[in-house]
Structure formats: C-alpha cells, structure tokens
Amino acid sequence: MMRFIPTMDFNGQCREAMEMYREAFGGKVTGLLTYGEANDPAYTLTEEQKNGSIMEN
Predict the structure, then answer these.
(1) Alpha helix locations (H) across 1-57?
(2) Are 12 and 32 in contact, with CB atoms under 8 Å apart?
(3) Do 54 and 48 meet the contact criterion of CB atoms below 8 Å apart?
(4) Cβ(7)–Cβ(55) below 8 Å
(5) Which residues, including other chains, have CB under 8 Å from residue 18's CB and lie 6 or more apart?
(6) Which phi and psi (to 5°) does residue 38 adopt?
C-alpha cells in the first residue's frame, strides 16, 4: 500500500507560514525540512530552491 505524505510549497516562505498557522491554531510543527536537506537525488535543484523551499510533514 502506498503512503500519502502531503507537502506544501510557499515560494520560500513556508517556515513563516507554518509559524503563523502554529500560532493561529495552537498546533505544533513536528517536521520542517528544506528540499536541500532532504537530499533526494530525484530532484535537480538550484541553490535558491535548496534553501528556499521547505517541506512540512
């Protein structure tokens, strides 16, 4: 069975968006990772993309 893992892209502002949602809903962000940190060989990324796009899981 395939596992579905949602991701969101906020054009380099995901960290700020997740902080806003955390405060607004009183939640907890359990995982935050740049695409560069994910180190997935399936993606060819520019330096800007590696550092600017963030995945939330």
Answers:
(1) 14-25, 35-38, 47-52
(2) no
(3) no
(4) yes
(5) 29, 32, 54, 56
(6) -65, -30
What's the pLDDT score for residue 40? Answer: 80
> 3-state DSSP call for residue 37?
helix
How does pLDDT run across 14-41, given as a tens digit for each residue?
788 888 989 999 998 888 777 778 878 8
Q: Could you count the other beta carbons within 10 Å of the beta carbon of residue 54?
A: 23
Tokens linked to 21: 């949602």
> For residues 54 and 57, what is the distance between their CA atoms, to the nearest angstrom?
10
CA distance 52 to 31: 16
Chain position carrying tokens 């899981």:
57
SS3 21: helix
